[in-house]
Amino acid sequence: MTNNIPTSAVSSKPTSNSARASMPKHSHSGGSGAAPANQADSHFGRKGLVQIALLGLLLLLPVAAYFFGHLYYVNLASRITIIAMAAVGLNLAIGYGGMVSFGHAAYFGLGGYVAGISAYHAFDFTPFMTWPISIPGSDSLLVVWLAAALLCALLALAIGAISLRTTGVYFIMITLAFAQMIYYFANSWPTYGGEDGLPIYIRNSLPLVDTTNALTYFLICFGGLVMAMAVTSRLMKSRFGAALTMARLNDVRLATAGVSPYPVRLVAFVISAAITGLAGALYADLNGFVSPSVLSWHFSGELMVIVILGGVGRLYGPLAGAILFVMMETFLGGITQYWQLFLGLVLLGVVLFAKHGIMGWLAGRERNE
Amino acid sequence: MSVTLLIEQILNGVQLGTMLFLMASGLTLVFGVMGLINLAHGSFYMVGAYATAAVTASTGSFLMGLAAGMTAAALVGALVELLVIRRLYHRPHLDQVLATFALILIFSEGTRWIFGSSPMRLSPPSWLTGFVTLPGDTRYPLYRLMLIGVGIVISIALYFLISKTRLGMRIRAGESDREMIGALGVNISKLYTVVFALGAALAGLAGALVGALQSVQVGMGEPVLILAFVVIVIGGIGSIKGALLGALLVGLVDTLGRVYLPIFFRAFMPPSEASGVGAALAAMLIYILMAVILAFKPKGLFAAHD
Q1: Is the pLDDT of residue A6 over 80?
Q2: Which residues contact B66 (CB under 8 A, 6 or more apart)?
Q3: What are the b/e assignments for A327-363, b being 16+ CB within 10 Å?
Q4: C-alpha–C-alpha distance, residues A6 and A2, integer Å
Q5: Residue A320 in contact with residue A309, Cβ under 8 Å?
Q6: Alpha helices in chain B (DSSP H)
Q7: DSSP character for A130?
Q8: Domain residues of chain B, as ranges?
Q9: Is the per-residue pLDDT at A190 higher than 50?
Q10: pLDDT of A314-347, one tens digit each?
Q11: Are the C-beta atoms of A305 and A321 separated by less than 8 Å?
């Protein structure tokens, strides 16, 4: 079977089969910083090389493609970058926080709809609302970003406050249910296109910068991704990150130490949603279109797949996963329309046999796994 | 809003509920006994419907088709359990979700590959078409009434299976303590395969029966799967009684909400807006119900165990 390909490569390495839960512990080595240039750490080595290679290739290949005139590949790279950013957000919840959210499409979609709806009102100069305060549409990137992140944070605060009262399967299911709720709402609410989706006629703009240029837009997305990874990295090195790690590993112990796990988890969940929502806004702008399909549970599943493929709880995991996923979708999808069959086989192989994902395979295990 | 409409919609809700119960009972058994969350349950629903459609088309007998559909779903279920699922029992839920998500992709694309993208035809046999006149001059389709009957029969059969037979005793024992019944000499891996195949067969039956009402196509299992998850979460994961009650509740709330919410909003809104708001709210209604229930009872109405 095809799924033996990633397996054999992994099982040829010596693996100590620790029976512990498969969530890799976050490494505190300097190698996981978002700016991997300034390490003098002995752990730099192979992992650092892989990380620099991933980010470097993601940055350089589109630039090269742009100057050779292949705009298609520049947009493909933007797509990878945005999906990776969404997965960075989800990784904060799943990988670092141990909160298996099956509903992150809700935030990605809401971010997309914020971009879409504000462009819709900016395009025909109608206000979004007039009461109690008047809110016009906007095509300023910064305003839209801020609005997307804030609204996703608010939504996640409400959803998280209820969902985090439950654990395990119930948490998975309730996050799924909330996402479905929003999906069906977007699907049947006719004002903004309903199931047909909402086209965006103007791309959001920044002062002095031409965002309609493919390379410029890619660089903006790339900046967003690096920012999201830097935030995650800083966060996990802080006291808050230590508390979140402990909430995942042993919440009773955290509580005994005088820190209540619930607010720690909730804050991580909210930040995670805000990052994913920002990615959603970028994605809607890239495509010039937003539809309920980005809110569907299939998309939540795909985001989880990306996090797992890359390696759960690893800073560069979502990036590696997004590269593999979008590449498979683009190139396998070009060969056969049944590419998801092969995606399924690869995913099954990774879950059953290669617990640590691509980053585990490429860069070795984290120090304290 | 007449009484006839109300009776008809209540029957529709019960019919949806009984079909949801067929799906949900398998899901909740598998979770209760093996502690496994199985997204691929919707695939068995689809397998059952396709096998029924194919066999009905070639033999001309709907009953033969149904038998083939259940058998095919049970066999595929047993095979999947042997090849993949049994490696997942001791894994975290995240791994289970992803592996079974992968199975969905494999089953959906595999089915599309074999049968093509266009829906297959499957219609109820001629002896089940037509209408029945119920008290109060309600004319109701015979086939839908039959679905309710099948649901009731299966519920009673499941009740007897679980509370009166040796297999049922083992299932109950497995639900309360997996390790212990293994230690007492029950062949636990065989029990797991049987429970999984049983759940798959029920899902296959539901798929075949509903497939004849709607259409048999790739991805038909997914909306039902999500509804079934809502059902078992509301009912309390692992509880058959909870699944039955949850299924009826979800079936009725969903069906009645879709009919009456737009009518309700029309009372104080212009009709065009009312139908939009009503439809949007109706589509969200069962998820709101679930959120409210979980906010007050985080383990569902009839939590079996942790």
Answers
A1: no
A2: B52, B205, B208, B209
A3: ebbeebbeeeebbbbbbbbbbbbbbbbbbbbbbbbbb
A4: 9
A5: yes
A6: 3-34, 41-59, 62-83, 93-115, 142-164, 166-176, 178-183, 188-211, 221-235, 240-266, 271-296
A7: -
A8: 3-296
A9: yes
A10: 899 999 999 999 998 888 888 888 888 998 998 8
A11: yes
By the 8 A CB rule, do B197 and B77 touch? yes
* 3-state SS assignment for residue A205: strand
B170-225: pLDDT as tens digits: 888 888 887 888 888 888 889 899 999 999 999 999 999 999 988 899 989 888 99
Dig out the tokens for B145 from the structure: 């009434």
Q: Which of residues 339-358 of A touch B (CB under 8 A)?
A: 339-341, 343-345, 347-348, 351-352, 355
- CA dist B167 and A275 (Å) reads 50
Q: Does A312 touch chain B (CB under 8 A)?
A: yes
Q: How many separate domains does chain A show?
A: 1
Q: How far is the alpha carbon of A54 from chain B, nearest alpha carbon, in Å? A: 25
Residue A4 lies inside a defined structural domain of this protein = no
Burial grade of A64 (CB within 10 A; 0-12, 13-18, 19 or more): exposed
Question: What is the DSSP secondary structure assignment for residue A142, as one 8-state letter?
Answer: H
Q: Quick one: tokens of A101?
A: 């959210």
CA–CA separation, A300 vs A266, rounded Å? 19
- Which residues touch A82 (CB under 8 Å, ≥6 apart)? A221, A224, A225, A279, A282, A283, A286
Q: Is A79 helix (H, G, I), strand (E, B) or coil?
A: helix
Distance CA B154, CA B205 (A): 10
| SS3 category, B131 | strand
Q: Residue B180 has which token pair? A: 């212990």
CATH architecture label of B3-296: Orthogonal Bundle (1.10)
Write out the two tokens for B143: 């086939």
Q: How far apart are the first and last CA of chain A?
A: 29
Angle of CA points A352, A356, A358, to nearest 5°: 100
Cβ neighbors of B157 (< 8 A, separation 6 or more) are none
Residues on chain B touching A21 (C-beta within 8 angstroms): 92
Does residue A132 have a cis peptide bond before it, meaning omega lies within 30 degrees of 0? yes
Would you say residue A212 lies in a domain?
Answer: yes
**Which CATH number fits the domain that encloses residue A147?**
1.10.3470
Long-range contacts of A254-257 (CB under 8 A, 24+ apart): none
- DSSP code of A367? T
Closest CA to B222 of B70, B301, B104: B104
DSSP secondary structure letter of residue A209: B
Answer whether residue A11 is part of any domain. Answer: no
CA distance A6 to A358: 9
- Chain A, chain B: beta-carbon pairs less than 8 Å apart: 131
The nearest CA of chain B is from the CA of A139 a distance in Å of 28
Tell whether A122 is covered by a domain: yes
